Every structure is written in C-alpha cells, then in structure tokens.
C-alpha cells in the first residue's frame, strides 16, 4: 500500500461505526495505542472486545429506537 493510499483513507469522513469504534477504544484505554500504531497494532483480544462492545451498543440503540 502506498503512502498516498493511507492519506486518502485518513481524509475519508468518519462513519457512525467509525465514531463508535473510536469511542469504545477510548473507553478501554486503547486510543493512544491505535493513534501510535493504527488498528493493526491491537491484539486479537483487544479487537474482539471492541467489536463485541460495538455489537452490544448497536443492539441497544436499535431497541431504544423501536420503543
């Protein structure tokens, strides 16, 4: 992957999922690690935890919207 491709990705607007992912990473104390080494610097356990919490929150938000 070229440097230009990485810069393009950084300039893309954040989706709701991206915002949620960063929010959860911050709550877990992993945001500094992500900023330094990117998402690839996280362990499988850390990544799984973020994904699991994202799923849980999305489910909760969906239930609240239905009520």
From TrEMBL:
What are the BP-aspect GO terms? DNA topological change
* Protein name (record): Small, acid-soluble spore protein, alpha/beta type
Give the top-rank taxon of the lineage listed in the UniProt record for this protein. Answer: Bacteria
Q: Which GO terms describe its molecular function?
A: double-stranded DNA binding
Ordered alphabetically, the record's keywords are:
DNA-binding
Report whether DNA-binding shows up as a keyword of the record: yes
Q: What does this protein do?
A: SASP are bound to spore DNA. They are double-stranded DNA-binding proteins that cause DNA to change to an a-like conformation. They protect the DNA backbone from chemical and enzymatic cleavage and are thus involved in dormant spore's high resistance to UV light.
Q: Which organism is it from?
A: Defluviitalea raffinosedens
Q: Which InterPro entries match?
A: SASP_alpha/beta-type, SASP_alpha/beta-type_CS, SASP_sf_alpha/beta
Q: Which family does it belong to?
A: Belongs to the alpha/beta-type SASP family.
DNA-binding recorded as keyword: yes
Q: What Pfam families has UniProt attached to this entry? A: SASP
Lineage of source species: Bacteria, Bacillati, Bacillota, Clostridia, Lachnospirales
């Amino acid at each position: 992957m070229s440097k230009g491709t990485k810069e393009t990705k950084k300039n893309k607007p954040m989706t709701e999922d991206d915002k949620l992912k960063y929010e959860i990473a911050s709550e877990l104390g992993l945001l500094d690690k992500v900023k330094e080494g990117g998402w690839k610097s996280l362990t499988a356990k850390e990544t799984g935890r973020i994904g699991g919490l994202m799923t849980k929150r999305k489910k909760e938000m969906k239930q609240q919207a239905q009520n």
